[in-house]
Design brief:
The complex is a heterotrimer. Chain B is an alpha/beta fold. Helix content of chain B is 20%, strand content 34%. Chain B has one domain. In chain B, a hairpin with a 2-residue loop joins strand 3 and strand 4. Chain C is of the alpha/beta class. Chain C has one domain. Chain C contains 3 helices and 3 strands, in the order αβαβαβ. In chain C, helix 3 links the parallel strand 2 and strand 3. Classes of the chains: A alpha/beta, B alpha/beta, C alpha/beta.
């Protein structure tokens, strides 16, 4: 059996080049292992070989991110490894950011499995834990031996396509991904057990910790409404009749953009809803009940508003992942801006 | 109120000239059931099939599942206010054809009916891959409205279950379970020293294919009220919905409400399970506020120490769930809530539409967005051509060999929020 | 969705029935509507009454877009 190939990424310090004074060191590729790579190679034994080490200064990486990661990417590409290991970075912030960023990029762009190792409070953890596996380490290089051991073992598991178990079993930092598993007891029994513990003031573990939602500051108001261009966006799934783009009834993977310039109001002849989360009969009868085209046209005529934008944007909100909704909205927002839209009316069902 | 459930274990189902139960086999006269269903002028045509565990069979789009039961003694009959007269049920003896189920399918009504696979990977996610199913494929008469069709199919399922349940009337059950809830003050006296616990059951009540009926009353019209747990076992609550397939309670789920069963298991030992508060999930905010005010008030009124709250559905009902939890906690009553998650196919998104820090004890039925590829099946009952349209399906999810990829959302009962299953989600 | 659009500096009026969800997820200008299946209508009214009702809500949304705010605001 041929050995798996590994490329290892480290910073200028661990390469023995220098400390802060050398942090602007540009990416360099060396053959074989360097610095902590020796310990990795020892743990990997005969199963895998570090064929190259890429060294980059922490300041250089963080200050020239685009350039740095593309240079490094092409170096990794030349080696075409089976696994990319970055760090471990322990609690070094910029090193952590670099490790997390380059490992995420290599995995995403080249499809090469990538891991890194960090202390839980390293800022790189929050930024990159969703993208890649980050093995939890101590907060300083004193934990090197243990970190290398667990990173090597985990890397080999990935290489051998073994099943990856839970974070606590494998030693990686929770990635914030919800995954389904079957457990011993049914939900109702777990609920009763949990309630009894709660009543007895005993410790219990919720199966879903409540999330915190982020906030965006309010945008400034419209000064002169009679000159403003208003666009309609809806998560109520209103679409032209027969749903030409097949927007899903639930868990939408796309949004629609439709021309309403010729409509004074919407009727059951021309529009309906594709939304699977509510009784569709009312919206099908009259889609103005979800997107008020008729009223906005009147307001346009009376110059209460400047103009109703020629297109409306639509998707189905139910069961649609927040990440999808976010991505749709970001694209929609860019289009609206380039179309000179001033404000948005967003309707939800 | 005391109820005995007499279980007659069913381990096979066959067509025959005569409908009867012999040993553990349920024999069904197809013709009689066809006639029963076609009494309703809204149904033009019905096809009756059998689906057994382990078979290479896919049923879709499934609307409801019903367990055949018969009231042998005590007041009233099964499905009071709908099939039987409106008498209070929940006492005496009810016989159950345990292991048998009536499944209704037919052309799609909304987007929201689901899939039952009797074998393969999908089977482990639905409890109805383990039951011996009589499947009714009901096709609607021309030119009738969606609401009328939905009702006709719902009634076909209940009537058939009643017909089959009747076969169990004079049979000696294989085992008898007994459940009793005392009047409130007696219960408090009897189990002094144990914390009293109520169950708050939230019922979907949002319109077409989203309704639930309590003694025949559309749940959107109720104000939260009290009900004995044994009434639920006798069919006091039925499903008028199957949306989204994964987290709506079918009538079968109501008849076998697992929260009720599991609270009874600890009743008199660790807790004093004093009864059930039922509430709804309406489309008006004022209704949501009122209903959650009432559940909290009733929990307070009953003087309970803790409640289990089960949700039905997702999206805006997440708000009802959080309101119930928050307001009940504010009365100083401990809550545990049961929900499910829509965390995206990769599990990286926000799971619930609403949240509050008081909801610190949560049971989850799993992430409904997770994808599953269901293998091809030899036999399809119903209409396969809707599996890209139902909630959890998407364009291009069917391959030529007959395998389909869907979100768990599309499988009946997959992430049930009564906690019917062993599925959960964890953070990875 | 509201937040992604608002991030660009465009004001968004979020018209929704379930105000608590809108608050939790972080919309800034929130305009309560009638009911989930018909946020801007009411099938039990006559066509004219229904349109008047709708006009009222949209007018409220337009006013919200004209109003400077510093925090999440529900425009009743």
């Amino acid at each position: 059996m041929s050995k798996y190939k590994i490329v290892h990424y480290i910073n200028q310090f661990y390469a023995g080049i220098g400390g802060e004074d050398m942090a602007n060191y540009e990416p360099e590729k060396r053959e074989g292992f360097v610095g902590p790579g020796q310990a990795f190679q020892g743990n990997l034994k005969s199963e895998a070989e570090i064929t190259a080490t890429i060294i980059c200064g922490d300041s250089y990486y963080n200050e020239n991110m685009e350039e740095a990661k593309n240079k490094i990417l092409s170096m990794v590409k030349e080696e075409n490894p089976d696994l990319f290991i970055a760090g471990p970075a322990f609690n070094a912030g910029r090193y952590g950011m670099a490790c997390g960023d380059i490992a995420s990029y290599v995995e995403k762009e080249l499809g090469i499995k990538s891991i890194t190792g960090m202390y839980i409070e390293n800022p790189g953890v929050d930024s990159y834990k969703k993208n890649i596996y980050i093995i939890e380490t101590k907060n300083s290089a004193a934990g090197m031996r243990k970190a290398v051991k667990s990173m090597s073992a985990f890397g080999l598991k990935l290489l051998n396509n073994e099943e990856i178990l839970s974070p606590s079993e494998e030693g990686y930092i929770k990635r914030g991904l919800r995954k389904n598993i079957f457990v011993e007891k049914r939900g109702s029994e777990r609920a009763v057990d949990m309630l009894i513990k709660k009543l007895k003031k005993e410790e219990f573990t919720t199966e879903f910790p409540m999330p915190e939602f982020d906030r965006v500051p309010p945008s400034p108001a419209i000064k002169d409404m009679s000159k403003a261009k208003i666009a309609i966006v809806t998560s109520g799934g209103i679409v032209p009749i027969n749903n030409p783009d097949h927007i899903e009834a639930s868990s939408a993977s796309k949004y629609g953009k439709y021309d309403i310039s010729r409509f004074k109001n919407l009727t059951c002849e021309d529009h309906e809803t594709a939304h699977g989360g509510y009784d569709p009969s009312y919206a099908n009868e009259d889609a103005d009940r979800v997107i008020p085209i008729d009223v906005l046209r009147d307001m346009e005529k009376s110059n209460r508003i400047g103009k109703l934008h020629n297109y409306f944007y639509t998707t189905t909100g139910n069961g649609t992942a927040v990440a999808n909704a976010k991505a749709f909205a970001a694209e929609i927002a860019q289009e609206l801006i380039s179309d000179g839209v001033d404000a948005v009316i967003l309707t939800s069902t | 109120m005391k109820l005995e459930l007499g279980n007659i274990e069913i381990t096979d189902i066959q067509f025959s000239n005569e409908s009867r139960v012999k040993g553990s086999t349920l024999y069904v006269n197809k013709k009689e059931i066809e006639n029963l269903i076609l009494e309703d002028e809204h149904i033009k045509e019905v096809k009756i099939d059998i689906a057994k565990p382990g078979e290479s069979t896919r049923i879709t789009p499934v609307k409801d599942v019903v367990e055949p039961r018969v009231k042998v003694s005590g007041d009233g009959g099964v499905f009071p206010g709908v099939i039987s007269k409106d008498e209070t049920v929940g006492t005496g003896r009810t016989n159950v054809l345990k292991g048998a189920a009536v499944v209704t399918t037919g052309k799609i009504v909304g987007f929201q009916e689901g899939i039952i696979d009797m074998s393969g990977k999908g089977a482990q996610y639905t409890p109805f891959s383990q039951t011996y199913n009589l499947v009714l494929s009901c096709e609607k008469a021309d030119d009738i409205k969606a609401h009328t069709y939905e009702r006709a199919v719902r009634m076909a399922g209940l009537k058939t279950a009643t017909y089959l349940g009747e076969l169990a009337r004079d049979i000696e059950p294989d085992n008898i379970e007994s459940y009793e809830t005392l009047p409130l003050m007696k219960s408090k006296e009897e189990f002094k020293g144990l914390p009293s616990v109520a169950y708050v059951q939230m019922l979907q009540s949002q319109g077409l294919l989203h309704d639930t009926y309590v003694y025949g009353v559309d749940a959107k019209q109720i104000i939260p009220t009290l009900i004995y747990p044994t009434e639920i076992m006798d069919g006091a609550i039925i499903s008028g919905n199957c949306v989204s397939a994964c987290d709506k309670n079918t009538t079968y789920h109501h008849q076998n409400n697992c929260v009720v069963h599991d609270l009874y298991k600890r009743h008199g030992k660790d807790i004093n399970f004093i009864g059930v508060i039922i509430t709804n999930e309406n489309v008006y905010l004022a209704d949501k506020e009122r209903a959650s005010n009432w559940t909290a008030k009733l929990a307070d009124f009953l003087g309970v120490d803790g409640v289990v709250v089960s949700q039905e559905g997702f999206g805006n009902p997440d708000t009802d769930l959080i309101m119930n939890c928050k307001k009940i906690e504010e009365k100083g009553i401990d809550t545990v809530i049961i929900t499910d998650e829509y965390a995206g196919r990769d599990g990286a998104s926000q799971s619930l539409a609403d949240a509050d820090e008081k909801a610190n004890a949560v049971i989850t039925g799993g992430n409904a967005n997770e994808l599953i590829t269901l293998p091809p099946m030899d036999k399809i009952i119903g209409h396969i051509d809707y599996v890209n349209k139902i909630a959890g399906g998407f364009e291009g999810n069917m391959t030529e060999d007959g395998s389909i990829t869907v979100e768990l959302q599309a499988i009946i009962g997959a992430t049930n929020e009564l906690g019917f299953n062993k599925l959960t989600a964890r953070e990875y | 969705m509201v937040k992604e659009i608002e991030k660009t500096g465009m004001p968004v009026a979020h018209l929704c029935t379930i105000v608590p969800i809108s608050k939790t997820v972080g919309a800034n200008r929130i305009i309560p509507t009638i009911a989930i299946p018909y946020p801007l209508g009411n099938p039990s009214l006559t066509e004219k009454e229904e349109k008047d009702l709708r006009r009222g809500i949209v007018e409220n949304a337009i006013k919200a877009l004209e109003t400077e705010i510093t925090e999440q605001t529900v425009f009743q």
